[in-house]
Amino acid sequence: MKPTSLFATLILLFTLATGTVYAGEPTPVNINTADIATLAQLDGIGESKAQAIIEYRESNGPFKSAEQLSDVKGIGARTLEKNAERITVK
């Protein structure tokens, strides 16, 4: 095996190994500023519920807590529970 091929293989293996570590870390989502695509990344939130979240915050102002998200039609306690570690309002 050529040294270049060995080096490229090692880089690929390192990239795959470190990518797996980072894949498990949830990315916080600020429900007061997130767009539809970002909100739809939350568990149990699709595009239609993401749109409902945006419409709710435009009509009622920013969310004061993550729990207030349950005021949006179609979002219940289970959805909040599944996303508790990811939802922020700051």
Automatic annotation (TrEMBL):
Helix-hairpin-helix DNA-binding motif class domain mapped to chain residues: 37-56, 67-86
Pfam families, sorted: HHH_3 (PF12836)
Keywords from the named record: Signal
A GO molecular-function annotation: DNA binding
Signal peptide: 1-23
UniProt cross-references to Gene3D superfamilies, sorted A to Z: AF1531-like domain
Stored InterPro entries: Competence_ComEA_HhH (IPR004509), Endo/Exo/Phosphatase_dom_1 (IPR051675), Hlx-hairpin-Hlx_DNA-bd_motif (IPR003583), RuvA_2-like (IPR010994)
GO biological process, one term: DNA repair
Matches recorded under SMART domains: HhH1
Coiled-coil regions, chain positions: none
Record's keyword annotation contains Signal: yes
Cellular component aspect of the GO annotation: type II protein secretion system complex
Family annotation (SUPFAM superfamilies): RuvA domain 2-like
Protein name per its UniProtKB record: Competence protein ComEA
Organism: Marinobacter oulmenensis
